[in-house]
Design brief:
253 residues, alpha+beta, 7-stranded mixed beta sheet, 4 helices, 13 strands
Length: 253
């Protein structure tokens, strides 16, 4: 989610939507995405989360940005504003859906072995044409659907140069074509889950650390100073703890 000069704009995972307000996502179909991301062991399937994002992105275009945000938010979901983390439910009454929804698309899906917790990292383009990065945390619900629990975003500073206009016949690779699925290694009799490192960027958060039920993924967010939003996540992979996501975001408003 991000705050623009005009309004607070929700940015979460989903497929990048086509221009001109079309509800159809760019890139391959759900079936192609599923084939590309299916194959993870156990209950963690990145394709399930990507499918959720596609549905969310379509809802944002068809129903409105914040209306869809409320539908896909978990109880207690946190929106990280320029002033710190705020419960999304407390913001909703004062928000109006913008005329044009933000476009967004995932680049990375990070999941615990048991699939109980996931984070997504990607790119967005807001209605004013500004682009940037976002990170969203997700939690699997009792009905096995996913709801977002935390969202943070920030514009690139400086903004990149305008993209080249494509002509008919050009081959275009979109963000959704290159989604990276990262799934934690599942502990077993042969693979013992070691204690998480005490000196990692995640551990420095103390009580603010969030951990998956099976202990294979942990993450935290932090508000640093007046205008610095920070999030970091690590997961257990092939016998070691690996930092998979670490970003700082500067609010533009």
């Amino acid at each position: 989610m991000k705050k623009t000069t005009a309004a607070i704009t929700l940015v979460t995972l989903g497929a990048m939507l086509a221009a001109c307000g079309s509800p159809r996502p760019r890139g391959p179909s759900n079936a192609i995405i599923a084939r590309a991301l299916t194959g993870a062991p156990g209950e963690a399937q990145p394709s399930t989360l990507v499918s959720t994002e596609i549905a969310y992105a379509r809802a944002a275009q068809e129903q409105g940005q914040f209306t869809a945000g409320s539908e896909f938010a978990a109880a207690g979901a946190i929106f990280h504003t320029r002033n710190g983390g705020v419960p999304f439910a407390t913001l909703v009454p004062a928000l109006e859906d913008p005329a044009t929804a933000t476009e967004w698309g995932p680049r990375t899906v990070l999941m615990s072995c048991d699939g109980s917790v996931a984070l997504t990292q990607g790119r967005f383009k807001d209605p004013d044409g500004f682009v940037g990065n976002y990170v969203t945390a997700w939690s699997r619900q009792s009905d096995l659907t996913y709801k977002w629990t935390y969202d943070v975003a920030g514009r690139d500073n400086p903004q990149p140069p305008p993209r080249t206009e494509f002509e008919d016949g050009d081959i275009v690779v979109t963000a959704i074509d290159s989604v990276q699925g990262l799934v934690a290694t599942c502990p077993s009799e042969r693979i013992v889950l070691p204690p998480a490192p005490e000196d990692s960027p995640v551990a420095l958060g103390g009580e603010n650390v969030k951990t998956s039920r099976d202990g294979t993924l942990r993450w935290r967010w932090e508000h640093r100073g007046a205008n610095d939003k920070y999030v970091v996540a690590e997961y257990f992979y092939n016998g070691a703890w690996v930092t998979a996501i670490e970003e700082s975001f500067e609010s533009s408003s």
